[in-house]
Each structure stands twice: as structure tokens, then as C-alpha cells.
Amino acid sequence: xxxxxxxxxxxxxxxxxxxxxxxxxxxxxxxxxxxxxxxxxxxxxxxxxxxxxxxxxxxxxxxxxxxxxxxxxxxxxxxxxxxxxxxxxxxxxxxxxxxxxxxxxxxxxxxxxxxxxxxxxxxxxxxxxxxxxxxxxxxxxxxxxxxxxxxxxxxxxxxxxxxxxxxxxxxxxxxxxxxxxxxxxxxxxxxxxxxxxxxxxxxxxxxxxxxxxxxxxxxxxxxxxxxxxxxxxxxxxxxxxxxxxxxxxxxxxxxxxxxxxxxxxxxxxxxxxxxxxxxxxxxxxxxxxxxxxxxxxxxxxxxxxxxxxxxxxxxxxxxxxxxxxxxxxxxxxxxxxxxxxxxxxxxxxxxxxxxxxxxxxxxxxxxxxxxxxxxxxxxxxxxxxxxxxxxxxxxxxxxxxxxxxxxxxxxxxxxxxxxxxxxxxxxxxxxxxxxxxxxxxxxxxxxxxxxxxxxxxxxxxxxxxxxxxxxxxxxxxxxxxxxxxxxxxxxxxxxxxxxxxxxxxxxxxxxxxxx
Length: 515
Ligand code: HEM
Known about the structure:
- By secondary structure, the protein is of the alpha+beta class.
- It contains 17 helices and twelve strands.
- The strands form four sheets. Strands 1-2-8-5-3 form a five-stranded mixed sheet, covered by helices on one side. A three-stranded antiparallel sheet has the order 4-12-9.
- Helix 6 (149-166) packs antiparallel against helix 7 (176-193), helix 7 runs antiparallel to helix 12 (298-329) and helix 8 crosses helix 12.
- Protoporphyrin IX containing FE (HEM) binds at residues 119-120, 132, 188, 307-308, 311-312, 315-316, 319, 375-376, 379-380, 443-445, 449-453, 456-457.
């Protein structure tokens, strides 16, 4: 027994020593190649993991004050460069966009998923270019978005209806974020399959919702196996195993929707008249004449479907929940945006997408929310596909690149009173927008990997928020006062509100205003 224990101790010591040696050698090699960006001193084996904390975006922001806007950080053996200023972001996207357009693939997402068919996780190259073209020429192109205007309006109407039912005519508090999530989920369900997946009746839809939610939960958790390669074999937190299980379960359900549509097409069953949806686009795809393949496998279709749900729902939900929370927290701003809505749109009429152009303050509220609460505070992590030199520093191949857009949006050098929620700042003439050209404000990213769904999000976000503010008056739950609200953030796959926002929607009646 004693011998066994001694053997284990020796093995452990040898293992740690070998890791230290490998790292030392790697460091020396990197130093020989050129100077890495500066960064905090790191420990053998674990690197800077203990400086990450529960809110990495805040930890990186504080460290950047000491080490500068381009900083090296070691997550175990994973070298990471953190970018924390608009100037360095400009340099990255203007002069190194291609070489830094790779993706770091995390352990939880490895396996079958992440290889075939993935757009978000694809390395920059022909396969990614082909899928990306599909997004820009078929999914999020103005013509298709225009044709699907009715779908967006219907999903938002359903959300209002669900809220009214749940709050029992304005007496009960509701979890506001949950309804945004339902709306976002049904919206993607309709864009993909022309189906409301969550309509109380669809058991399959509810299961898909459950499994997709689990994937985003597990994928957002820090995973030791990413930082310490030796642990990859053991998957110590079980995150790869759990993620794979829920990914496969989601694929099975999505696969049934796809199969049903294909069988319907083969038997010539015509569904009720509907617009061409994304599934039609995927099934009709016969190559884009530039890159392989000439058609999509069932697996690729499942991956694309699944990715649209995961990329689209959490980001939309978190932005809308933060927008409502900031408005409750700043009652004068809430009054101002409601006054704009109610003086522009007749209270008896529904807010329409066409009206948004005439609601500059509502649009400014969305921008201000994205400045303070970008749902992806580091974008989706990029990776250097090759070594490069940026601002005189060496960025070795396979370095992970995190662009801290949370810090950039709160930089006092750019923003006056950066921590104050002040939509008025976006009302000034020639003020910046989020289309990826103003590097002070890039919640959707910039360059080649920028969010392809930005045109969709910029229609849905003001319409959903505006409809709720136009249709209801709102009271915080439990008699909470605005100044008592808990505005803490919680980092998962997106940056969420830690304490869900609970409020009572009171249907807005015109005659109450005229009294
Ligand atoms: C508030 C709404 C949204 C925000 C703020 C947002 C933001 C982002 C960001 C920051 C990225 C990564 C950019 C980079 O890596 O440099 C991204 C990528 C992506 N987003 Fe969005 N997004 C939103 C909504 C959506 C929606 C609704 C969908 C789909 C229906 C979507 C689909 C995607 C996809 C597929 C990618 C991967 C693009 C690639 O890797 O080439 N997003 N998004």
C-alpha cells in the first residue's frame, strides 16, 4: 500500500515537472521568436487561471489598466491575448482580420459537432466562406427579411398574449426574460421550419428547447480540460460528455422536423401557403458554384439549424432583458421612451416595423443597452491561424484572441459618464452605430466574422421592446423601488442578468391617459 502511494506521489511529481519543463521551453521559444504582449506574472501549470475570477470581463478590464490594452494571459497552457481598447481593436480588424479569423474550439464542443457543417466554430476557409455566403445571400438578406416581416410581428404578438395570460390581467409578476426567450425561440423556429416550437402543445418543441438550453449552459461553463491538456482524457467536469448528449438529443428532434418536410415534399403533400423558410433554402441548396459541397448532408442541416437557435436566442433575450432592467432602473428614461411611442403610434394600433424609423429614442435605448451590456462581452473567441506581428508584438499561432467589447463600451476615454445609462448620447448627430466601423462600439463584432444576423437583430430588438412598452405599463414586482434593483451580471455563454427581472405588465388603456 505504502509502495503504491509512493509510486503515485513520484508519478505526480514527474508529471508536474514535465509540464513545467514543457512550458518553460515553450516560453523560451516564444521569447526567441519575438516579444509577446505584456501581461500579469503567471504560475507554472495553472498560468493566470486564479486571476480570472467569476466575472472574467471585469477581471480583464482591471488587469488591462495595469498591463495595457493588448495583454497576454495564460489559461493553463492556453495562451490568450486580450484586447481592451478601440485602437487595438481597429488594428486587429483593419490589418489582421484574416489571420485572426480562426476559432478556438473548446473541449465541450469537440467531437462530431464543430466539424461538419458548423458556421460559428468553422475555421476561416472555404467551408466557412460557403456557409457565410448562404447567410448573407439567403438568410439575412433584405429580400428574405422583408418577406418574413409578418413572422416577426406574429411571434411578438404571441409574446404579448402569453404575458397577458401569465400575469392574469395585470396582477401577477412575470419573469420578463423567460418571455423574451420564448419569443426568440419561436422566431428562430419560424424562420427555420415555419413552426411555433413552443405553443403549449408541442412536446417535441419543449424537448428541443430543454436540450438546446442545456447545451448553452454547459458550453458557457469554464472547463479545466481546456486549460490543462492532461485533463482532456478525463473530462473531469463531465462537460464534454453532457454537452455531446444534449447536442445529439437536439439533433434527433431537429432531424424529425427535417425528415417530415422531406417526406412531405416527396409525397407531394402541400402545406398551407407559407413563405420560403430556411429549411427550404437548405434542402434546395445545390452548391453555390464556388465551393464544395453541392448539397448538404442531414448532419450539416441539423448543425446549421441548431446553431441558429443557440446563436440567436440567448443574445436576443439577454439584450432585451437588460434593456427593460435599465429602463426600470432609470424611470425618467422609461417615461421618455413611452412618451415617444405613445405620441407617435396611436394607442389602439400595434407597433409596426415601419414605425421604428420614427422612433429615434427607442433605437437609442437599444444601442445604449448594447454598449453597457453586450451579450457576448468577448465576441466569440477568435484564434490566430498563423503567427503574426501586431503593434510590434508577436502573436503566436493558435493564440486565443478575446476582444473585450464590454471594456471598450465603458472606456472613459471614449464615453462621457460611461457607467450611466444615457440613451441621449446616441441621439447626437453623426453618432456611431454598431455596423462594425466604429471600433468604440462593436457589440456585433467587426470584419469577416462579424455577426451575420445583425440586420435581423436590428429589426427584432426595437420591435419587441417597443411593443412591450407601448402595450403595457409596468410595475416592479414586490413593490421594489428602482434604486433597490439588483443589476449584477452573471457570465455564462452570454452575459446575463444574475437576478431575473420580475415585473407586472398592466395593459395600457387609452382612457386612463385622457382622464
Ligand atoms: C442581440 C443580438 C445579437 C448580438 C449582439 C450578436 C452578436 C454576435 C457576435 C459578437 C458574434 C461574434 C463575432 C466575432 O466572432 O467577431 C456573433 C456571431 C454570430 N451570430 Fe450573432 N448576435 C446577435 C444575434 C444573432 C441572431 C439572432 C443570430 C441568428 C439567427 C445570430 C447568428 C450568429 C452566427 C451564425 C454567428 C457566427 C458567425 C461566424 O462565425 O462567422 N446572431 N454574433
